[in-house]
Amino acid sequence: MEIVLPEFKGGHCRLVTACxxxxxxxxxxxxxxxxxxxxxxxxxxxGTALVRAWIDGKGNTRYLHVDCALREYFPKGSAPKxxxxxAEVTRIIERAxxxxxxxxxxxxxxxxxxxxxxxxxxxxxxxxxxxxxVSMKMTRGTFSLTGxxxxxxxxxxxxxxxxxxxxxxxxxxxxTVSEEYMCEMWEWINKQFQLFVLG
Length: 199
Fold this sequence. Notes:
Elements: E1 13-22, H1 26-31, E2 35-44, E3 47-56, E4 63-70, H2 86-94, E5 100-112, H3 121-125, E6 129-131, E7 134-136, E8 140-144, E9 150-157, E10 164-176, H4 181-198
Antiparallel strand pairs: 1-4, 1-5, 2-3, 3-4, 5-10, 6-7, 8-9, 9-10
């Protein structure tokens, strides 16, 4: 079995995190032993990426946590230290394949302001307003959603000179862990970004 990891192609996503409770009978959950956090690097067409995974829990509860991120996502010197090979990290995910999971997904995106729709809420809120020599604009915000698969969108202007916006989207889904689990999580969070941010 080969676990496939996201390549971060064709999108603005820089990090996807999937953390969820593995479901099943008490015996199934107990049989899944814990695994300490392991970090590996892997190559993508978009550049070097990092994957981190572990299984934790108390009693009969087990949680699978997986992060995949482009190295460029991390400020200089703050990327997690590589501790293992890609095969050793993906073996943790393999142990959960076939199990249902209630998963919280977080995606971090960077998008140029010019790519946001002109009538979109983030662009409208971040427009500078001037009155009587005083200017004001929003530089960050949070949207809470109900009745949608995502529950929250945070955004802020990038601190660099690129005129870009950093967006964090959080949502909850139920899935079955598969060989392409993290690719499925990446695709799902990207669809939410397209729908709710790029419109």
